[in-house]
Amino acid sequence: MKIELTLNEARVLGCLLEKEATTPENYPLSINALTNACNQKSNRDPMLNLGETEVQQVVDALVKKHLVSDRSGYGGRVTKYKHVFCNTEFGPLKFSDVERAILCELLVRGPQTPGELRTRCNRMAAVADVAEVEAALQALGAYDSGPFVVRLPRLSGARDSRYAHLLSGDVQGAPADESADAPGPAAVPRSGLAERVQSLEAQVEALQGEVAELRERLEIRQGREA
Question: pTM (2 decimals)?
Fold first, then answer.
């Protein structure tokens, strides 16, 4: 399956995947809700400031690529949109919950390590440990219709390699060579501290995302009761 997404298309698709899993009661999304999701201050990298007109243009492009559906029947008078990228009734792509969560996180946040993914994916799927994430990454890299992810060369001083999605084409510097798995001398004395800091940062970001999603649900509920 050949998919070439722009940055904004990747953000929109990732947001639809995310909200389907985290706030299913508010899914599919209107253009207004989708714009807010794209411009969230938490769980996003890079930060974007898209307008509704821009998001509508991106959605229209994704509809033409058969990755988003705008068909009627979702209820209400406002047009709402849902992804048809994976795990749909007639679509060919069927991912596990963890694989789907990984792709979503890579779409909305960019390259990440297995440890970061383990923490951040927990809001969308139950993840037992890093080994489960690594197994899912291997599966995503070996799909017949893929690959969907690639391992990047390890950054200087970093303990773990990061992974990126391939839905926007080839990633600069990838695929990584085998030397990416070899421990660098700069990483040895700092690996324990760096790993703990990285894990704590990911946990804080995940908690911020959960708080934002709870606030979103509360605001919607208050709006319905008003």
Answer: 0.78
Q: What length is written for the chain?
A: 226
Neighbour-count burial for 125-157, b at 16+ CB within 10 Å, e otherwise:
bebeebebbbebbebbbeeeebebbbbbebeee
Q: What topology does CATH give the domain 7-92?
A: Arc Repressor Mutant, subunit A (1.10.10)
Q: In this predicted model, what pLDDT tens digit does every residue of 127-165 receive, in sequence order?
A: 999 999 999 999 999 998 989 999 999 988 888 999 999
Measured distance CA(161)–CA(180) in Å, rounded? 7
- Which DSSP state fits 71? -
H or E stretch at 81: strand 80-83
52-64 vs 31-38: helix axis angle to the nearest 10? 100
Q: Distance between CA 218 and CA 226 in Å, rounded?
A: 12
The CATH number for 97-205, chosen from 3.50.50.60, 3.40.1650.10, 1.20.1260.10, 1.10.10.10, is 1.10.10.10
